[in-house]
Amino acid sequence: MKATADQSPEFSAPQRTAVFSMIAAAFLVALKLVTGLITGSLALIAEAAHSGTDLVAAILTFFAVRVAGRPADREHPYGHGKAEHLAALAEGAFLVILSLAVVYASVRRLAGSSSHEVDTAWWAFVVLGVVLLVDVSRAVISWRASKRYDSAALAANALHFASDFAGSLAVLVGLVLVSLGVGSADSVAALLVAGLVIAAAASLMRESVGVLMDRSSEETQEIARAAIERAEPTVDLRRLRVRETGGRAFVDAVLAVSPDAAVGQGHAVADNVERALEEALPRSDVTIHIEQGESRDLRERATGAALSVRRVREVHNVRSVVVDGGRIEMSLHAKLPADQTLADAHAIADEIERAVRSAIPQVGRVHVHLEPLDGAGTATAPSSDEIARYEAAIAQAVRDVTGRPPREVGLHLEARGLVAYVSVEVDGSSTLAEAHEVAKHVEARAEAALPVFSEVVVHTEPA
């Protein structure tokens, strides 16, 4: 089947590697079993059984890779990556059972309970040479594919093929020794092959169980932690959980931001951390939960507490004072929807007071000023004659305060009256507090010169 832009190929690259492994394993099973039966070599029969398990493993890997490659669905929201590790676990158990059978037969032969002559014909050595070449080639191919596609099942195949090579080498040594008159060498080689298989199977099963039980990799955990610290060094990382399956990392992190941070600011922090984690751990699936952090600043704590009341939309002008006796009193302005009834708004104000006192126990009284949330309005421009007169008055007010002309002046006739929007230049080295004082002076002069203004909004920019 030819792949198109809308179709995926019938077999992916990892699946083609698994198919190659199946063909190679079937060939080796037949070759080793026939040679072992003809020569009477228990070691070769053990190797045939070993390759038989590899054939089963390759079949399992083929289907596991196909299943693991499926996208996430409603029943499997985290994907199907664990299918590879289930296959690897079944394969490991199968390897152990057959290896124990080989051990039993080898021990019986060494104990003299059964005897059999081993034929060391020259062609048996040729067969072993072919087997060694096949073992090396398929181990290298599977190992490279496992690294390229980050596949646990293909890595397991590479490990088994490497153990096959070691086992075949042991069989070759055993046959050489048998040809030199050491009759027990074949059984000893069979035991060695069985030991290699059991060791490899135990390692494979341990790794697969770790993945299936969501054991966290310390290395991946540290990579994720470092990525978060680089992206947002000021946030508090309260929890980090990482698990890996199917070549993907699933990261779950809880971050604490300033208690007065707006929802949008918290979301921006989460987006930044997600990007950093996806760069550090490609193909990762990241979930970020944002919480309110701790702060010693009374204003931040009070703002955060007030914003935690669900119907509060905006909090500003938060102030605290120490009154007689060392008591702290706080005042703040809170904006609510304009269509809220006074009774409902007063109930929300009570919630705000309780929330602030709960967050800051040393606060005695909390004074809440309620304001309606402004909606979108409409505006028109004054007449051309008025514009020239108003702009001249504003420009003079700005020059009187800053010594510079305004950078921009905008005039609107709104429902509340005439509003001026003015941009002025202030020394860039000034503090925000100093720039704010300049803006206040400009507003006062402009409103004094033209009482017709209902508001003058001054925006300060560095000169």
> In what order do the strands lie side by side in the largest sheet?
1-2-3
CATH topology tier name of the largest domain: Alpha-lytic protease prodomain-like
Largest sheet composition: 3 strands, mixed
- The CATH superfamily of the largest domain is known as Cation efflux protein transmembrane domain
CATH architecture of the largest domain: Up-down Bundle
Mean pLDDT: 79
How far do the termini sit from each other?
67 Å
Key terms for this structure?
disordered N terminus; Alpha-Beta Plaits; 12 helices; cadmium ion transmembrane transporter activity; 3-stranded mixed sheet; 463 residues; membrane; alpha/beta; Alpha-lytic protease prodomain-like
Description:
By secondary structure, the protein is of the alpha/beta class. The chain folds into four domains: 13-212, Up-down Bundle (Alpha-lytic protease prodomain-like), CATH 1.20.1510.10; 218-292, Cation efflux protein, cytoplasmic domain (Alpha-Beta Plaits); 298-372, 2-Layer Sandwich (Alpha-Beta Plaits), CATH 3.30.70.1350; 384-462, Alpha-Beta Plaits (2-Layer Sandwich). The chain is 57% helix and 18% strand. It has twelve helices and nine strands. α5 (152-179) runs antiparallel to α6. It is found in: Membrane. Pfam families: Cation_efflux, ZT_dimer. InterPro entries: Cation_efflux, Cation_efflux_CTD, Cation_efflux_CTD_sf, Cation_efflux_TM, Cation_efflux_TMD_sf, CDF_Transporter.
